[in-house]
Design a protein that fits this description.
Chains A, B: InterPro entries: Bact_HTH_transcr_reg (IPR050679), Chorismate_lyase_/UTRA_dom_sf (IPR028978), Tscrpt_reg_HTH_GntR (IPR000524), UTRA (IPR011663), WH-like_DNA-bd_sf (IPR036388), WH_DNA-bd_sf (IPR036390). Chains A, B: It comes from Secundilactobacillus angelensis. Chains A, B: This is GntR family transcriptional regulator. Chains A, B: Pfam families: GntR (PF00392), UTRA (PF07702). Two copies of one chain form a homodimer. Chain A is about 30% helix and about 35% strand. Chain A is α+β, with helices and mostly antiparallel strands. Chain A folds into two domains: about 5-80, Winged helix-like DNA-binding domain superfamily/Winged helix DNA-binding domain (Arc Repressor Mutant, subunit A, Orthogonal Bundle); about 85-230, 3-Layer(aba) Sandwich (Chorismate lyase). Chain A has a six-stranded antiparallel sheet with strand order 4-5-6-9-8-7. A three-stranded antiparallel sheet of chain A has the order 1-3-2. In chain A, a hairpin with a 2-residue loop joins strand 5 and strand 6. In chain A, about 30% of the residues are buried. The model of chain A is unreliable at about 75-85 (pLDDT under 50). At the A-B interface, strand 7, strand 8 and strand 10 of A face strand 2, helix 4, strand 7, strand 8 and strand 10 of B. Strand 7 of chain A pairs antiparallel with strand 10 (about 235-240) of chain B, so a sheet runs across the interface. The first copy, chain A, binds a DNA duplex through helix 3.
Chain lengths: ~240, ~240
DNA sequence: AAGTGGTCTAGACCACTAC
DNA sequence: TAGTGGTCTAGACCACTTA
């Protein structure tokens, strides 16, 4: 994976940018880069495309490719590297503790919706895992996840009481790299109010997602209900390609 | 712009997907598409790549290209799907009407936070534009935006009563292509309840964003409060290209 | 073994910018 | 007019999945 041509170029250019090797904030033109790296112009383009997506450079047709001055300044805000799809790792824990309380752990037949979402056949089974997430002993999220048993046949109660993604990666060498999420807002229902300690006027954020493995296999559908005051989603959107 | 090959394919495939012309949730393979559209496989790949980025399809190496089942569900009104940064264009208007009611339009000095976000100097001024967005005559969003006067010196009351982004693009040839957004949830306050017609138990979604022009210039900071039942944000996160 | 998506190349032509 | 990035092609080869 790391020996791909465009990736080699990408990493090299990135470190050269960080090393300030382009003091005029301008990169060489694509044809020169192609020659210098001894790769095709398409590969250069691909590497530059990734950098542009990350907001590190700007291309201006007809004039050249330039380093984004904002990127070099305000690194904290605009830097989008190493985000994480898993919940356990999405919360900053500077000394605070995260906890998981297992509410229920069952095996159930996949309903029709689930069959579609997870690419299952009629009669396939899924784990249904309900958990309460705690942050410094305060519950902030109800999580109900469904995972096909045929993808992870030996999930145990112990495993689902911890980070499932970490288990998968460490033990089974499966990596979750994509997710499709949809976010909504709703008034809290009675279960929310009880489990999350909310007043009737206090709402929840709802995140539903499908998580995919590296190869595109849908791995889990998850429904998450969060205390409104623990929800904060940041995103950097670019529209280069419509 | 619209006559690009990959865009033609992209739009065609997109509408075929929406029309449910692939009932088995599977697209033809790339080589067949290439032949069917009479374009190169690279162009097919590019179109499919955009669809994949938008989370509409996903590709499984070795087996094929499939439609994301979650995408077809959850099609509410506010629908950001990376297709457009502007609000006016983010709403599906199949016959429905969108409206904007101007609440206030002032010029004020930029406070310190604004100076940072919009890269302004001490003493610079910004427009403060408050608007109520309507959908089929129902208010669904309160929008308060701040734009530096030095970037758009001749904004008029008429312009800010319509789509500012469209005005910029059509009249000034400036295009907004990037944004940094943060989303939260909160109980509705009295102003929300009055303007959006909410009950005290009904919440709002809050979106705050900085919008950037093509060349990286920050153009607007905006704070948006939406009726909870009009909010639905879909996003597809990939950790692929690092 | 056949079929699928992924990567990469070499080169043509186009559209825009700067001088 | 020269130089830049953008689009597109045709085809080779690789990696993975499925049977």
């Amino acid at each position: 994976m790391a020996d791909l041509v465009y990736r080699r170029v990408l990493h090299d250019l990135k470190s050269r940018i960080h090393d300030n090797q382009f003091p005029d904030k301008r990169l060489p033109d694509e044809r020169s880069l192609s020659e210098a790296y001894n790769v095709s112009r398409s590969s250069i383009k691909r590497a530059l495309g990734v950098l542009a997506n990350q907001g590190i450079i700007f291309k201006k047709r007809g004039s050249g490719t330039f380093i984004n001055p904002l990127y070099m300044k305000n690194q904290t805000i605009f830097h989008y590297e190493g985000s994480n799809l898993g919940i356990t790792d999405s919360f900053k824990s500077d000394g605070q503790t995260q906890g998981i309380k297992l509410l229920s752990f069952k095996v159930v037949p996949a309903n029709e919706e689930m069959q579609q979402d997870l690419f299952l056949e009629k009669g396939d089974f899924v784990y249904e895992i309900s958990r309460l997430r705690l942050f410094d002993d305060h519950p902030f999220m109800i999580e109900r996840g469904f995972i096909p048993i045929k993808i992870a046949p030996e999930l145990s109660q112990k495993v689902v009481s911890g980070s499932i993604f970490n288990y998968l990666e460490d033990v089974q060498n499966k990596v979750v790299t994509k997710s499709f999420m949809t976010m909504k807002v709703a008034p809290s229902n009675e279960e929310d109010q009880e489990l999350l300690g909310l007043k009737p006027t206090e709402p929840v954020a709802i995140m539903e997602g499908i998580f995919f493995l590296d190869d595109g296999t849908p791995f889990e559908v998850s429904n998450m209900r969060l205390r409104y005051d623990y929800f904060n989603y940041n995103t950097f959107v670019t529209l280069d390609e419509e």
